[in-house]
Amino acid sequence: MRRTFHVAASIKRLVLFAVSLAFIFYVYQVILPSDLRTGQIALSLIAGWAFSAYFVLPRIHRLLSLLYVPDYFIGRTRTADGLLGDQINLAFIGSKSSLRKSMKRAGWIEAEPLSLSSSWRMVWSIIRRREYPDAPMSDLLMFDRRQDLAFQKQVDGNPRKRHHVRFWRTDKNWYMPGGYRVDWVAAATYDSAVGLSMFTLQFTHRIDPNIDQERDYLVDTLSESDAISMHERIEHFFPPFITRNGSGDRFLTDGSMVIVTLKRKL
């Protein structure tokens, strides 16, 4: 499973590399001052950045993360390069069909898989500021695999800003700390802008630091649409903390976990 994921991650990294080069070309043509557009300077800058961002830094992080990132549930996802990612701040009880129906009823749109085509459409929509409601998301790992489902809500048709959440199915015999049995765990965050990752220098979305607000926003949309039967808030499930995700974005949380029970029939 792990080797399969790393092969897929390498392919997707090459796809993102190609798309990012296209974006760099756009920056070079439109944004870069004319006195820096000499061929030698531009090629040196692009080659140096691309080699570091998509080959050197990811490999360094993958090797180092094997030494310090625990191989058990700590409530944090991982990036394809092994870095600690977004916080798990929600859990769900219900089937895959119920989850899909509940999210769609609450106005959330399922994200497209990440591919060459969807990545290019994403970059083009950001450049042109055009709506892309089912834009793809980067893969994050939980239980040594990428997300099973992902949903989003773009804000004012702007692909740079969106509410989004990833879901991972749990094994039948798996329990959260405290003995809570759930069918899904999820990480909800709000994309507020597009920029460079602090750790790898790759192009990525940047998240708003208040992830608790996004967690509560998701639960509120489900409640308002009458898509769930109940939800339980567990205070101090994790200790409150402030840290950074895999892109270097600072975020903070009160450590609460919300368990949502989905309606069987909608």
**In percent terms, what proportion of residues is strand?**
25-35%
Low-pLDDT sequence parts: none
Number of strands: 14
Average pLDDT reading: 84
* Euclidean distance between termini CA atoms: 35 Å
Main beta sheet, described? 8 strands, mixed
Provide the gyration radius in Å.
Answer: 19 Å
Shape: globular
* Structural domain tally: 1
H/E element order: HHEEEHEHEEEEEEHEEEE
**H/I helix tally:** 5
- Helix- and strand-based class? alpha+beta
Helix content: 25-40%
How would you explain this protein's 3D organization?
The protein has 266 residues and is an alpha+beta fold. The protein has one domain. The strands form four sheets. Strands 3, 4, 7, 8, 9, 10, 11 and 14 form an eight-stranded mixed beta sheet that branches. β9 and β10 form a beta hairpin. The chain is globular.
Core attributes:
two-stranded antiparallel sheet, eight-stranded mixed β-sheet, 266 residues, alpha+beta, 5 helices, globular
Write a concise synopsis of the structure shown:
This protein starts with a helix and ends with a strand.
Write the layout of secondary structure elements.
Layout: H1 2-30, H2 39-68, E1 76-78, E2 84-87, E3 90-93, H3 96-105, E4 109-110, H4 116-128, E5 141-142, E6 145-146, E7 149-155, E8 158-169, E9 184-196, E10 203-207, H5 211-224, E11 228-234, E12 241-244, E13 250-253, E14 257-262
Parallel strand pairs: 3-14
Antiparallel strand pairs: 1-2, 3-9, 4-7, 5-6, 7-8, 8-9, 9-10, 11-14, 12-13
Helix pairs in contact: 1-2, 1-4
